[in-house]
Write a structure and sequence with these properties.
Layout lengths: L3 E6 L6 H13 L2 E6 L12 H12 L5 E5 L4 H8 L3 E6 L2 H17 L4 E6 L9 H9 L13 H13 L1
Parallel strand pairs: 1-2, 1-4, 2-3, 4-5
Bound molecules: 4'-phosphopantetheine (PNS).
């Protein structure tokens, strides 16, 4: 049977660091679903779930075994329903670890057959996060090195819209 991995996240918006993890995961599994989920610790957000899905689709269109979905519920529940064998998450700095470890243990409790795999980020992207992209962009900084080129203008436009409100 074809192996399926899930790359979950809030992706508000996708960064080149996320894209690197997705690309490397796609080399290890037959199929990858990049899954946009809600993170209860992050309220609001700059982009709607459907905008986030659209951004990821446009950024991953060159990787044939990648699909993109949104799920308004539990990651473990979705992974079981789809028959996934693994949840793959990128690990950057040590401070990521505590929360990621708790999430992995929770998901293991909810779906004992699904393994969480932590993929170490490329050193080039260790500092990078969606929040940092929004912060740099809000102050007019250059985000070209931080986000896929296909979606850069959408982010700049949204920041401008929010500022003009
Ligand atoms: O990119 P993020 O915000 O670090 O991703 C966290 C995310 C969205 C994967 C996590 O909050 C999540 O799995 N949300 C869905 C709800 C869920 O399954 N919660 C239980 C695991 S903590």
């Amino acid at each position: 049977m074809a192996s399926l991995a899930i790359c979950p996240g809030s992706f508000d918006p996708i960064t080149v660091g996320h894209l690197d993890i997705i690309r490397r995961t796609a080399k290890m599994f037959d199929r990858v679903i990049v899954l946009v989920l809600m993170n209860s610790k992050k309220s609001g957000g700059m982009f709607t779930p459907s905008e986030r899905v659209d951004f990821i689709k446009r950024s991953t269109s060159h990787i044939p075994n990648v699909e993109v979905e949104f799920h308004d519920g539990l990651l473990a529940e979705y992974a079981v329903k789809k028959g996934a064998v693994a949840i793959v998450k990128g690990l950057r700095v040590l401070s990521d670890y505590e929360d990621e470890f708790k999430q992995a243990l929770t998901n293991k409790k909810l779906a004992s057959d699904i393994e969480t795999i932590f993929m170490v980020t490329d050193t080039e992207y260790m500092f990078l996060s969606s929040s940092l992209v929004k912060e740099v962009g809000s102050f007019g900084g250059d985000i070209s090195d931080f986000v896929p080129s296909a979606i850069k203008q959408d982010i700049i436009d949204r920041i401008r819209e929010l500022r003009e409100r």
